[in-house]
Phytoene/squalene synthase family protein
Amino acid sequence: MDHVQLFTDTSRACAKLITQRYSTSFTLGIRTLDQRFHLPVYAVYGFVRWADEIVDTFHAHDKAALFADFKRQTYEALEIGLSLNPVLHAFQDVVRQYGIDREFIDAFLFSMEMDLDDRSYNQSLYERYIYGSAEVVGLMCLRIFCEGDTAQFDHLREPARRLGSAFQKINFLRDIRSDYEERGRVYFPGVQYEQFTDEVKRTIEADIRADFEAGYAGIVQLPRAARLGVYLAYVYYLKLFHKIRQLPARRILGERVRVPNNTKLLLLMGSYFRYRLVRL
């Protein structure tokens, strides 16, 4: 038995378990991708999930020190092609296999580091944070889906960024209360938590709608093996967005809007049948 391959396979299985434990919706989306994309995308999710956990969860510890060590281990793994941290080992393997850009990783780690400090976001920081925390994750996945086709990646790059941006802004709306109460953050530039009004909410929603439209234009051009999985993520977030739009600002500040698991399954089935009948 090749024990190096066994270690890599086990590391990939760890990333898959992390995805299944942390995100029902993301797991459903991955399952609708072609089988060859499952483990690589699990590896990307495991990496971004672990980084996010450091900055958002371990409040009783020195999160800056934990993150600095995680960052050091990440670059070491990328340099030598090995990590004893299974999440980082699985991730570096995918980075090497699919040629994922180092700039995407740099931008992601920078955005996660921004979350270590309570801060107000101006437009420039807001855009930089969204790029690093969400858009580059979509671009990492797009590298996987394009399987070395650079022209196809370049063509779909902007729609992929816009789709990731839409998803992140919806997360910001959904989590505006917990982000403020638990972490002292309001990501939307110039928005004060106590002055979050219906008018402010409508302005943010108009921005999200524009991102959604640009992102959908890219989904229909994705390689067929990836299209249904990304479309399912789009449908899920669109459902969440519609629920948020129907509520006044005061309700958004008072409760966390969710899409129940049974609704997620219905969205999955509906997306699948539409895909089969309409051939997105």
